[in-house]
Amino acid sequence: MEKEMRKLLESKGKLTDKQREKQELYLAVLQYTKTETWPVTWKFNASNMTAPEAAQKIFQKTVRCSEHPLSQWLLVVQTNIKREIDTKLKQHSDYQALLPDSSLIERENKLSITDGPDELIIKFTKNKATFISKTILQSLQRFLENVSSELTYTIENILEIFYLIYKSLLPEDSEEICHRLIETHILDPIWSNLIILFRIINISSEYKIMEAMITHKDSDPTKFGFSNQAYIDPEVYRNCTSLLQVIVKSQSMTQKLRCLVDIAKIICGNPSSNQVNPNQRRLGADDLIPLLCYIIVKSGLPQLSSECFAIEQLFDMKYMFGEEGYALSSFLTALKYIEIRKVIDEEQDEQNTA
Q1: For residue 166, how many other CB atoms are within 10 A of its CB?
Q2: What does the alpha-carbon distance between residue 75 and residue 156 come to, in Å, rounded to a whole number?
Q3: In terms of DSSP H, where are the helices of 92-218?
Q4: Residue 3 is inside which H or E element, if any?
């Protein structure tokens, strides 16, 4: 970070608009911090704080100060992005009405999806066909890509400047903590509308997953490749389903990701008793994907596909190498398997009739 900032400040060549903006913001923050008095006694007051608590306190002092250049810049960016998203959603409010309705899973017996080159055709047993233009979806996807890039740029800028300016006060190795604080502060207020955009451009995947939910609403875990020799406590399914509900209701991406991790831990950490052999064994990675598929299908929440897609697009992957990255990749794999489940079922039917 320091080398990159020094290089930017010492640059003699022509700067891009974003580079100039970053340079000016950094210098403004640097100048402003010379007037701050609270850092003088900070280390004494923060001696009993944990690293996350200390980082959060410093960040809150920054963003809650209306005169701080970082706070001012962040407010402008957030307001502009929110306005752009709201405007786009108003222009395509009819597409919001087309998003999958989970209540149909119990009421419908069949869902037919035709994924053509120009449009997506959705047909339920009891309803008329719905036609969704792929041209509009592609336009919205380009818009969302631009918004995602702007959000990523904003988070990186704030992180770099905040971390460099207050590095002497922050706990050691707190860059990831700061990143999560900034990410949460920027994304949480706009999440409710942002996820609608992700759902609209991901509507094809949601309907394909919904199709599997209707087809397999009475299936057991063996349908998804889980060993029929193992018995899983129903409490595991209930706990996982509750966490899936939290994911779609929460406005916090950090909480959503935490739920993904907790579900993976519940599954992999759950002892299963073998019906043939009474000795207990612990479920492993090979059991995770099949059980995730089963739990997701039973949840009746096709929007989980868009939730995980959004997390993948917006979270900085360099902080996702541990259990969070593993949990997210496992969910994405399970969701993709469910999405293509119809093709697998058709192939199996052909083999059985051959």
Answers
A1: 21
A2: 15
A3: 93-96, 104-107, 134-165, 175-187, 191-201, 203-215
A4: helix 2-9
Q: How far apart are CA 105 and CA 209, in angstroms?
A: 11
Residue found under tokens 């640059």: 11
Q: What angle do CA 313, 265, 333 make, to 5 degrees?
A: 40
What is the distance between the alpha carbons of residues 287 and 161, in angstroms, rounded to a whole number? 44
- Longest CA pairwise span in the chain (Å): 80
Strand-pair category, 271-274 with 280-282: antiparallel
Query: Residue 46 contacts by C-beta under 8 Å, 6 or more apart in sequence?
Result: 54, 57, 169
Please say if the pLDDT value at position 47 is more than 90: no
pTM score: 0.87
85-99 tens-digit pLDDT: 999 999 999 999 889
| Residue 167, SS3 per DSSP | coil
Residue 209 near residue 102 (C-beta atoms within 8 A): no
